[in-house]
Model the fold of this input.
Amino acid sequence: QQQVKQSPQSLIVQKGGISIINCAYENTAFDYFPWYQQFPGKGPALLIAIRPDVSEKKEGRFTISFNKSAKQFSLHIMDSQPGDSATYFCAASKAGTASKLTFGTGTRLQVTL
Amino acid sequence: KAGVTQTPRYLIKTRGQQVTLSCSPISGHRSVSWYQQTPGQGLQFLFEYFSETQRNKGNFPGRFSGRQFSNSRSEMNVSTLELGDSALYLCASSFSAVQETQYFGPGTRLLVL
Done:
């Protein structure tokens, strides 16, 4: 059972454009939703995270939008840069089990010049 | 502060063998989690240790086991290796069992022939 569905699988965006990656979850017990960025040969690195009590969180060029009623959340990368080219994973965990993350399937982002 | 270190970085084994992977968390971190990453199944949670005790376990067979030492270093063991165990094994550490930010190591890439 895939508890966190992520789309699209791959994404090509021009430099300066907006990259949007979407995730949907099924388990209403999830209360922590991080996004991770992974470069080839590296482990995932935390990018930004949100809890369900807010609908949006922004950190620099990265914004998470959260829709609790729809059980969906998305990552927006503004002014996308070639250095943003990586694989992005959404994830979720339940209260008290923050270390047990359920990951989405990943989105490979390519930012072209 | 040094990041999460994993050894070895690469490993080749044959079916039926067993393997032990090691993870040293960030200094001061007491929670260590292990994940398996494959192209087909993505990132899947294996188990989490905190203060030498397994707190959470994913849906993997008993061939996968782990332990944590008093200095928070952790090892995972896979016995009777199967071809499908070929994967990148990632270790992540966090300060406490409930702290949400996990820091991932670079992983150990295991190839089973």
Remarks:
- Chain A touches chain B through 24 residues (CB under 8 Å).
- Chain A has a mean pLDDT of 94.
- The radius of gyration of chain A is 13 Å.
- The CA atoms of residues 6 and 105 of chain A lie 6 Å apart.
